[in-house]
Amino acid sequence: MKLPFAGRLLAAAVLAAASAALPLSSAFADDTAVKPKVGLVMKSLANEFFVTMQDGAKDYQKAHAADFDMITNGIKNETDTSAQIDIVNQMILAKVNAIVIAPADSKALVNVLKKASDAGIKVVNIDNRLDPEVLKSKNLDVPFVGPDNRKGSRLVGEYLAKQLASGDKVGIIEGVPTTTNAQQRTAGFKDAMDAAGMKIVSVQSGNWEIDQGNKVAAAMLSEYPDLKALLAGNDNMALGAVSAVRAAGKAGKVQVVGYDNIAAIKPMLNDGRVLATADQAAAQQAVFGIQNALKLVKGEKVESVDGVIETPVELVLKQ
Question: Can you give the pTM of this predicted structure?
Answer without folding.
Answer: 0.83
